[in-house]
Design brief:
By secondary structure, the chain is α+β, with helices and mostly antiparallel strands. The chain contains 14 helices and 19 strands. Helix 1 packs antiparallel against helix 3.
Length: 446
């Protein structure tokens, strides 16, 4: 007779196979491999469930509740941090691939959270529409990774986060109930109003699946511009990053670009910009003005190259500036006045670790997003919790940085700085939606 963990794992496996089918359930070494763990008899997840729709997500959550197994949603596997997945029922949201439904008249797209963001944008472009922040680097980021679990992905932040355009969501709560957030009439207005009140939809989207599993979202679309790419490379130093930030702010204010990227790596700063115009005849002029503006800021930029017609209409993938890999990182939002402070503090934290800065800057109308990479140790092991970017993250927050997708390693530091109203709202949502802590994980309330 099986006892303890083995009995729970066997029961969970049997229940999942009954509700989802054998092909949508991974156990044992298959589950460990999918999570990025080494093969072994112990320490892995109880099982990995790959539900295809909201009804199957309901079934998975109810199985976790009935078997007293913590359910951990993930939009991307393998996971960078394995600790939370041990002895848990992992819900792989990347399998929620309801294809995009583009409503041209209402300029909206309803899509499963497992669909790649670049695919949604390409389909919208065929109707001359696009996501607010067009995908800038195609790293395979899925819609769920951008709006459901707090991972921003590598996406152009020109005129704000994609989360600003979430006008509806289909969510399964910790009690296993399917609820609908948002309404059709929100398509004509902002999805929420910033009047000093708690943001319930924002809490649900940003809590990494701890209040509810987001299965699909409805996103507002925008008119698609014509685009032209240009890139250059300079030596990476403080002055170069600040000059790039100043260039981005002016270019975005003039609506000359929708994407400004700066990648610091190995002592070099790679710059990629995308000039835009909503009339094809205006694109050459916008490109010329962008080159002149770069020259004013001491940056040399070649003439931007316009996207081909088939790319512009979403009939094939674009020529992305570079490829990126799924790596451990700390992602931060930075307001323009705090840019220099966060730059200096992150520089000091990298110096404390004895490492060269590994940062990706994405500039937008409201500020910048910086992704600070965390290298692995010399023995190839990721010890993120000991890295100064994690252990001294409070310095970054005090300098003006706001974490995006805090993750388990940063959650305690973030919660200390949350306003009281946000804490009260979070506790109320958890009591209402996940009273038994099925989705809350081992750390309990956010």
């Amino acid at each position: 007779m099986l006892e303890g963990r083995a009995a729970i794992a066997a029961a969970v496996h049997a229940d999942l196979v009954d509700k989802l089918g054998r092909v949508r359930v991974l156990v044992g070494d298959d589950a460990r491999k999918a999570c990025g763990m080494l093969p072994g008899p112990a320490g892995g997840p109880l099982a990995i469930a790959q539900p295809a729709n909201a009804e199957q997500v309901e079934a998975v959550v109810r199985i976790g509740k009935s078997r007293r197994a913590p359910v951990v949603p993930r939009s991307r596997l393998p996971a960078l941090y394995h600790e939370e997945l041990r002895d848990a029922l992992v819900l792989d949201c990347s399998a929620l691939q309801a294809p995009p439904v583009i409503d041209v008249g209402r300029r909206a797209a309803t899509v499963g959270v497992g669909v790649p963001a670049a695919l949604v944008d390409r389909m919208a472009r065929q109707a001359r529409l696009c996501l607010r922040s067009l995908p800038a680097l195609d790293d395979g980021a899925r819609i769920g990774g951008l709006v459901a679990v707090g991972d921003p992905g590598d996406i152009g932040a020109g005129w704000g986060s994609l989360c600003h355009d979430v006008v509806g969501a289909e969510v399964v709560t910790g009690s296993g109930r399917l609820v609908q957030l948002g309404a059709a009439d929100l398509l004509g207005a902002a999805p929420w109003l910033g009047q000093g009140l708690g943001n319930a939809l924002g809490q649900v989207l940003g809590h990494e699946g701890r209040f509810g599993v987001v299965c699909s979202v409805t996103l507002r679309l925008h008119p698609a511009p014509d685009c032209a790419w240009a890139g250059s490379e300079v030596a990476a130093d403080r002055d170069a990053v600040l000059r790039l930030g100043s260039l981005a702010r002016r270019a975005l204010a003039c609506h000359l670009v929708d994407t400004v990227l700066g990648v610091e790596r190995a002592g070099r700063l790679r710059i990629d910009l995308r000039a835009v115009a909503w009339d094809p005849a205006d694109l050459p002029n916008a490109s010329t003005r962008l080159v002149a503006l770069c020259r004013e800021h001491g940056l040399t930029l070649p003439k931007p190259v316009a996207e081909e017609r088939r790319v512009r209409l979403g009939m094939q993938a674009g020529a992305w500036p570079q490829t990126v890999e799924h790596r451990a990182s700390v992602d931060l939002l930075v307001a323009w006045p705090d840019l220099a402070n966060v730059l200096d503090v992150s520089q000091a934290l990298y110096a404390e670790a004895g490492q060269a800065p590994d940062r990706t800057w994405t500039f937008g109308a409201d500020g910048a997003r910086v992704r600070c990479g965390i290298p692995v140790d010399g023995d190839g092991v990721l010890r993120a919790e000991a890295h100064p970017l994690i252990s001294r993250a409070g310095w970054l927050f005090d300098a003006g940085a706001i974490p995006v997708g805090a993750g388990s390693l940063l959650r305690a530091a973030v919660r200390e700085r949350m306003p009281t109203a946000a804490k009260v709202l979070g506790a109320a949502l958890q009591r209402a939606w996940d009273a038994e802590g099925v989705l809350a994980g081992r750390t309990g309330v956010w």
